[in-house]
Amino acid sequence: MLDSLGISFRVETGNIVEAIRGNESPEAHVSRLAVDKTAAVSARVPGGFVLAADTVVVIDGEILGKPEGAAGAAAMLSRLSGRTHEVWTGFSLTGGDEAVIRAVMTRVDFVELSPEIIDAYVGSGDPMDKAGAYGIQGPAAAFVREIRGSYTNVVGLPLAEVVGAMLAAGVIRAVFL
Question: Which positions are annotated as active-site residues?
C-alpha cells in the first residue's frame, strides 16, 4: 500500500510473540504489538523512522488472531458468518524525537456463509495467515456486506492515519498518487 503511494521503504521483521496479555483490550493489544515490533526493529535502523502495525479481528469481545490450521479457520469464519465484527489495527511510527502510537477500528458486516463456501475458502489456503481467517482484498471480499470505517484498516494498515502521521513527523513531504 505504501509503495502505491510512492513512499520508499524497506521491510524488516520484528519477530515478537503476539500473545494476548491478561484482559488486554483489542486497542491495547494491537497498540502494544505495534510498539513491540517497532522497538525490535529500531535498533537495526539507527537514525531512521520505523513503522510497524498489527491487526486483529474481534467478535463477541474475543480477539481473533491468525487461525491455527484449517479447522481453526473454519471455526472463525463460522463465527463471523452473518454477523458484524470489528477489525482493529494498531500502528507505531518512531524515529528521531517522534513516537506516534494509534489504533483504528472498522466494523465489518459479513453475509451468511454456507458450510460449502467456508470449506472452499479454507481449502484455497487464503485464510491461513490472516487475522480472523480472511483477507478483504482477496476472494473474501465477496463475504463483506458492508464496512463502516477504513477499508485499508481491514487490509492491515489504516493509510489515512498512517500517512497523516508520516506527514506530521516529516517522514514524507507529499504523497504521489
Answer: 54
